Amino acid sequence: MNLTLKIWRQAGPTAKGELVTYQVADISPDMSFLEMLDVLNEQLINEGTEPVAFDSDCREGICGMCGLMISGQAHGPERTTSCQLHMRSFRDGETITIEPWRANAFPIIRDLVVDRSAFDRIIQSGGFVSVNTGAAPEAHSVPVPKEKADRAFDSAKCIGCGACVAACPNASGMLFLGAKVTHLGELPQGQPERNGRVVKMLETHDLEGFGGCTNIGECSAACPKEIPLDVISTLNADLRRAASSGS
Amino acid sequence: MREGSPGRVCPLTTGYLEPVATTTLPAKKKGVASSSIGLKFLMAGTGVIFILYVLLHMYGNLKALAGQEAFDTYAHHLRTFGEPMLPYGGLLWVVRIVLILALVGHVYAALRLIARNNAARPVKYQVKKNVGSTLASRTMRWGGLALFAFIIFHLIQFTIVKPNLYGAADSEAIKESPYVMISAAFAMWWVLLIYVIALVALGMHLYHGIYSASQTMGLNNTATARARARAIGAVVAAVIVVGFLIPPVYIFIDSL
Predict the structure, then answer these.
(1) Positions of chain A with pLDDT lower than 50, given as ranges
(2) How far apart are CA A55 and CA A57, in angstroms?
(3) Which of A110, B56, B81, B251 could anchor a disulfide with B186, C-beta 3.0 to 4.6 Å?
(4) Taken in order B218, B223, B226, B228, is the CA torsion positive or negative?
(5) How confident is the model at residue B17 (pLDDT cuts 50, 70, 90)?
(6) Which among B33, B128, B212 has CB closest to A215?
(7) pLDDT value for B30
(8) B22 pLDDT more than 60
């Protein structure tokens, strides 16, 4: 496959960026998208130019490190992570535009790499359960209804990749926030801190500069873990309950 | 925190993190009411008031099909409703004040949220595709603006000034009889056109708004509930649009 790539190049956080056009040839359709970028970078290094900086870690679709806006879609045309996207999803001769996640809360570090530590700070402000550590408790000692366990697990699938923020026209982090709140809120261990958690996590979310939710659904459509929109409803319900109880 | 990151730290997190001096964090007002979701609660709550009002308004309009006497009596009855406990026109003013307050709240929430959402993405994408959202959901602010402009026109036309924009019609009779007023108005193709456009805007605004309000109020906690909320939004929007369209279209066809 021969492809034309238009890639966002930006030397640093405050530098002015621009789209730069590159050509790559003889790309195998079996390559992953990131392997294709690796080929481009080898080419750039051989030419003596600076390679394109992009994030990746496990390349198995489970860590949430990679994330690219590929021709206007977060993680590209398939519902998966950028690393698990393969070149067979593209046509020979296609022009692909690659941009970083764009959000005030995710400042660009370089080229396609953004700083997603805003998500970490949201988690640090309440996305946990305070328990005394020690030996693991007997699993059957706290019964959890099957539906709740399933929903908690489905929400816990969130890998924090930031595709929801990237796809949202408001750069809102509500799907991420909703997934975390639902994950802990469905389980007995999450109950004691439930009201305070949602208030504090939302406050951090807002302070970090994420936008608000308009319930349009672009986030969920882009989510590689298929987190459904109803976690945002649960987030809203939790906040309503917390507000009415005076938390 | 990493070197060179913007140094934004929520005051509440300092219990878990090393306290870090912040340079970019403005002292913002805290509290649920002014949070991004708190503003959505205001948006949804005031929206529900509007939904209930347009349902009543639509029902009242259908009285026009029953003829001049029925419609004019109905319009008069709205003003004498609750007498002698309420003064003449008292209930109407209660409704108007509630609607004005709801409008202030709705617009205030919208402006605050739009400003926040625009600031959340200062640099736009060069290429962006929408794959998971409806046109109605992406045009809420423009639909809202169109409806706002329409409501001003509508109030001037039928409540505040009642101008005779319809050529041959009798200006005195228009001010006296609501039935004569709407009959003269909707006999004009351009008046009908304005109302059809406004109703399309209202229908789209409600189609997403009803669903979105239920989502904001936290009522859609399963996939089934979400699908049901979408269906309710579509049905209520359709009922309101069709219900509002019937009298003007009937009058227009009748005048031909």
Answers:
(1) none
(2) 7
(3) B251
(4) negative
(5) very low
(6) B212
(7) 64
(8) no
For A55-71, letters b (16+ CB in 10 Å) and e give: bbeebebebbbbbbbbb
CB proximity A10 to B under 8 Å: no
pLDDT tens digits along A164-182: 999 999 999 999 999 999 9
CA dist., res. B178 & res. A246, Å (int): 49
Residue among A72, A117, A118 whose CB faces B125 most closely: A72
- Per CB-CB distance under 8 Å, the chain B contacts of A234 are 218, 221
Instruction: Give tens-digit pLDDT for B51-96.
Output: 999 999 999 999 999 999 999 999 999 999 989 999 999 999 999 9
**pLDDT digits 0-9 by tens, B235-246:** 999 999 999 999
ipTM: 0.92
Best A194, A236, A244 member to test B by mutation, with max B CBs in 10 Å, is A236
Q: How far is B147 from chain A (nearest CA, A)?
A: 18
Residues 114-133 of A with CB under 8 A from B: 115, 117-118, 121, 124-126
**Are the beta carbons of A230 and B217 separated by less than 8 Å?**
no
Three-point CA angle A183, A189, A190, nearest 5°: 45
CA proximity to A193, closest of B35, B37, B214, B16: B16
Portions of chain A given CATH number 1.10.1060.10: 116-129+143-244
Amino acid identity at A113: V
Class for domain A3-110, per CATH? alpha beta
Just give the CATH number of A116-129+143-244: 1.10.1060.10
